[in-house]
């Protein structure tokens, strides 16, 4: 039994996950940082978008402002936390615990300022498109289109620009990249800018089709990590594929397991991959 | 006042147990367990469900501990061979999944309605005067044990200070040892005197307090023996450099698995006490935030240091009690904002500690490699 409606929902959630997971895998691979605050940066992006939107801007401009704000927040965390700790050669576990502290700080900061209630954008109401039995919500279609555009742009940057090449080199081997004359600090900056943009878009888009909520990003951190591990850490294309797999399988599991256990599906896929192929599907 | 201090003592005691479990996993074996509350959930629900089916409490709690250890085995088997950060991700997922199961499998756990009226230890116990004095006697023994441990700790610090005087790093100052001694004795005396008052005017919580303190003393004593044994030294070696332990012919995976399971079992025990303290348990009592609270305790007190874990629990609950008391008086926040603010500060403390003082209050910096 195959449900097109669920498949479509899965693709929509998968495209959001993909954007968020790209950022996570880039910082994971390039900076060796498993950032547990990543989901909360996504929430931050969504809230900034919501703030701009409710103060009267249209949604697309708001999302761009949200992205700029998220990039600034990520750069602050880079210069206050990650860079000093990297310079001190802190161990990965130290960084992980700091990221948990940062996650609590951001999430509860948002909760303190804007409360725990659900927020909605001010959007024109658009009728769902209908193709026979299949009902396609307009904004889900927009989300998928935006994700494809963002992924294409990322692909062009990674493959065709000097920065993209240097990023891949740094992800491969940071010391080798440094001795071959790559300005690592500049690459780190660009990594955060790309990560911030994609993560904030993911948050903004999640608000578009679901709702804006202080816990939204935190609840997505497990599927994000599952996507990253599925695709192999540091591999953005793998993360995209992983995100679509996780998103679609989660939705298709609903008739079998009920919607409460979506998280369990992501966890099960992740544990299965860790047992069979811990380096991910696409890494050697 | 007596009742409130009893309440605090029980929470500090059960969180100390919980923190000791995490300290064994993270402080001694270097395992990042971000789902510590999962073990507590399993311990609490198993004990409560079995005992309400008429299983004797002592058997129910043993089953709770055993199943918590089994959960450790399951998680450990799948992830302990891999990179350390995978364990963090998987444990976070497992703890959320367990909470979802507790929330949705209503046939088993009654879901969000919560489980009420389950058997409690020493619930219908009405001691006569002789029995009350007997209980106070037990409490006295515990206080003497605590004071003795404190004295031992201070003496070893003092000796260490003497033997390394003039060497490259500064030993602990005598004055600070005296201050620690006074603080420690003060806490022990407060708990003891308040405990005596509570036991003389016996109610259920006073009995529970005594049970928690007994469990804490036994677990603490056992752990101190364990971590000072060759087994504990192997664990520390694994934490510092796995390859060296492996080169010495130690089965690293097996040691890690043992530490993970034992830490989980201790958390299961803490879970049973948590259920008895709450007397009604809901899935919302077992949120991931509890894991990070206990992480703050261990990091604050000092990773790889058992007295540190207990100190962390005391400081944490002092922080909690003080902010609950004084924040409303400031009138800055509404009550829901207050909760968010309190957790925000905890996040900040965790970050600041890891950046400036990763060894915590009592941890040894020389012993912990925190960088490469």
Automatic annotation (TrEMBL), chain A:
One of the record's GO cellular component terms: plasma membrane
Keyword Membrane appears in the UniProt entry: yes
Membrane-topology descriptor: Multi-pass membrane protein
Pfam families for the chain: BPD_transp_2
TM helices/strands, residue ranges: 7-31, 59-82, 94-116, 136-158, 187-212, 218-249, 261-280
Keywords, sorted A to Z: Amino-acid transport, Cell inner membrane, Cell membrane, Membrane, Transmembrane, Transmembrane helix, Transport
One GO MF term attached to the UniProt entry: L-phenylalanine transmembrane transporter activity
Similarity remark: Belongs to the binding-protein-dependent transport system permease family. LivHM subfamily.
Protein name, per record: Branched-chain amino acid ABC transporter permease
Species this chain originates from: Waterburya agarophytonicola KI4
UniProtKB/TrEMBL annotation, chain B:
Positions of transmembrane segments: 6-24, 31-51, 57-74, 133-154, 174-200, 206-227, 253-276, 308-327, 339-356
Chief location category: membrane
Places the protein is found: Cell membrane
Superkingdom, taxonomy of origin: Bacteria
GO CC entries: plasma membrane
PANTHER family per UniProt: HIGH-AFFINITY BRANCHED-CHAIN AMINO ACID TRANSPORT PROTEIN BRAE (PTHR30482:SF10), HIGH-AFFINITY BRANCHED-CHAIN AMINO ACID TRANSPORT SYSTEM PERMEASE (PTHR30482)
Protein name: Branched-chain amino acid ABC transporter permease
InterPro entries: ABC_transp_permease, LivM-like
Origin species: Waterburya agarophytonicola KI4
A GO term, aspect molecular function: branched-chain amino acid transmembrane transporter activity
One Pfam entry name: BPD_transp_2
Membrane topology: Multi-pass membrane protein
Keyword presence, Cell membrane: yes
Keyword terms: Cell membrane, Membrane, Transmembrane, Transmembrane helix
């Amino acid at each position: 039994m195959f449900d097109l409606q669920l498949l479509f929902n899965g693709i929509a959630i998968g495209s959001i996950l993909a954007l968020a997971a790209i950022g996570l895998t880039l910082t994971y691979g390039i900076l060796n940082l498993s950032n547990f605050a990543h989901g909360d940066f996504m929430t931050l992006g969504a809230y900034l978008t919501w703030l701009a939107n409710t103060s009267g801007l249209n949604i697309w401009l708001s999302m761009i402002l949200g992205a700029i704000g998220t990039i600034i927040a990520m750069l602050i965390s880079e210069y206050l936390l990650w860079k000093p700790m990297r310079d001190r050669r802190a161990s990965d576990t130290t960084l992980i615990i700091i990221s948990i502290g940062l996650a609590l700080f951001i999430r509860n900061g948002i909760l303190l300022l804007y409360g725990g209630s659900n927020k909605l954008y001010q959007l024109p109401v658009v009728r769902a498109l209908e193709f026979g039995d299949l009902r396609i919500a307009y904004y889900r279609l927009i989300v998928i289109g935006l994700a494809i555009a963002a992924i294409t742009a990322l692909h062009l940057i990674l493959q065709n620009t000097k920065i993209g090449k240097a990023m891949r080199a740094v992800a491969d081997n940071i010391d080798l990249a440094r001795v071959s004359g790559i300005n690592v600090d500049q690459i780190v900056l660009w990594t955060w800018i790309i990560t911030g943009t994609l993560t904030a878009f993911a948050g903004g888009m999640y608000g578009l089709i679901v709702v804006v909520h202080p816990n939204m990003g935190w609840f997505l951190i497990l599927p994000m990590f599952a996507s990253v591990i599925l695709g192999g850490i540091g591999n953005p294309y793998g993360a995209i594929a992983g995100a679509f797999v996780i998103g679609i399988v989660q939705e298709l599991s609903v008739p079998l397991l009920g919607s409460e256990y979506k998280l369990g599906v992501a966890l099960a896929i992740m544990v299965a991959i860790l047992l069979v192929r811990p380096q991910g599907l696409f890494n050697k | 006042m007596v009742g409130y201090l009893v309440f605090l003592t029980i929470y500090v005691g059960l969180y100390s147990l919980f923190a000791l479990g995490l300290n064994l996993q993270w402080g001694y074996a270097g395992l990042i367990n971000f789902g510590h509350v999962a073990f507590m959930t399993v311990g609490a629900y198993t004990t409560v469900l079995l005992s309400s089916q008429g299983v004797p409490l002592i058997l129910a709690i043993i089953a709770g501990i055993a199943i918590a250890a089994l959960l450790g085995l399951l998680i450990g088997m799948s992830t302990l061979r891999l990179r350390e950060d995978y364990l963090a991700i998987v444990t976070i997922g497992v703890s959320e999944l367990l909470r979802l199961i507790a929330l949705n499998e209503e046939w088993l756990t009654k879901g969000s309605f919560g489980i009420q009226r389950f058997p409690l230890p020493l619930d219908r116990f009405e001691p006569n005067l002789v029995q009350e004095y007997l209980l106070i006697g037990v409490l006295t023994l515990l206080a003497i044990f605590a004071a003795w441990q404190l004295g031992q700790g201070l003496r070893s610090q003092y000796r260490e200070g003497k033997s390394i005087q003039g060497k490259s790093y500064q030993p602990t100052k005598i004055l600070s040892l005296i201050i620690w001694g006074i603080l420690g004795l003060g806490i022990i005396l407060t708990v003891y005197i308040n405990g005596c008052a509570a036991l003389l005017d016996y109610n259920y919580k006073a009995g529970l307090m005594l049970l928690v303190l007994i469990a804490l003393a036994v677990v603490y004593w056992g752990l101190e023996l364990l971590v000072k044994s060759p087994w504990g030294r192997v664990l520390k070696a694994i934490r510092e450099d796995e390859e060296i332990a492996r080169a010495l012919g130690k089965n690293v995976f097996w040691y890690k698995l043992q530490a993970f399971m034992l830490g989980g079992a201790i958390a299961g025990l803490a879970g049973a006490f948590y259920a008895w303290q709450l007397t009604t348990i809901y899935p919302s009592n077992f949120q991931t935030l509890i894991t990070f609270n206990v992480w703050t305790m261990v990091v604050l007190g000092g990773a790889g240091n058992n007295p540190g874990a207990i100190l962390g629990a005391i400081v944490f609950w002092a922080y909690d009690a003080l902010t609950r008391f004084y924040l409303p008086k400031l009138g800055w926040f509404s009550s829901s904002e207050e909760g968010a603010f309190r957790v925000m500060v905890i996040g900040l403390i965790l970050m600041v500690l890891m950046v400036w003082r990763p060894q915590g209050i009592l941890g040894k910096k020389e012993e912990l490699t925190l960088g490469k």
